[in-house]
Design brief:
Layout: E1 5-8, E2 24-29, E3 36-41, H1 43-55, E4 58-61, H2 68-72, H3 74-77, H4 99-111, E5 116-120, H5 124-130, E6 138-142, H6 151-164
Parallel strand pairs: 1-4, 1-5, 5-6
Antiparallel strand pairs: 2-3
Helix pairs in contact: 1-6, 4-5
The structure holds magnesium ion.
């Protein structure tokens, strides 16, 4: 059985909307030739790698940055190149679509029944996952985009991953 995935969003998760703490450093990045300012906490890379290693899981990006996250975000956090969920450009708000629901639809397709924990700031992603048949066992860790990832989010994810691991054989 494939190990569970740890899916990571960028904006509102690794890159909060405001600088929440002095550990966050300002970076100027240029995905697709555009210029953005991002706030990143370098400790998050180590924390994500530890979470995956200790939980027997694999890291992947679930962000509209797609592969650009490997160029502009990962190296600044000490993360290796990671697989990413392909998320086509958001088609707009017609038919009640939202950014979170659109991304969740592609997360559901890409994970293909694998278990995953997902750090995400869009609340409506959970609703979409719940209504999509065939989605694997999952935990959506809702992140406040003002604060970004906190130690409590890591604890929640670690507890879920630990709870899924097969325990040692029971004593007879
Ligand atoms: Mg986001």
């Amino acid at each position: 059985m494939s190990p569970p995935l740890v899916l990571v969003d960028v904006d509102g998760v690794l890159n909060p909307f405001r600088r929440p703490h002095r550990r966050f450093r300002h970076h100027r990045v240029h995905p697709d030739g555009q210029s953005f300012r991002v706030w990143l906490d370098a400790r998050h890379g180590r924390m994500l790698r530890a979470l995956a290693a200790e939980g027997g899981a694999e890291l992947a990006w679930a962000t509209y940055w797609e592969d650009e996250a490997n160029q502009w975000i990962g190296p600044r956090l000490g993360l290796p190149r990671l697989p990413f969920v392909p998320v086509p450009a958001f088609p707009g708000v017609e038919e009640g679509r939202s950014l979170g629901a659109w991304k969740a639809r592609h997360v559901a397709a890409w994970t293909g029944g694998r278990a995953f924990v997902w750090f995400e700031d869009q609340a409506d992603a959970a609703e979409t996952l719940a209504g999509t048949p065939g989605v694997g066992d999952h935990l959506l860790v809702r992140v406040d985009p003002v604060t970004g990832l906190t130690p409590e989010h890591f604890e929640e994810a670690a507890a879920w991953l630990t709870g899924r691991r097969p325990g040692p054989p029971a004593d007879r």
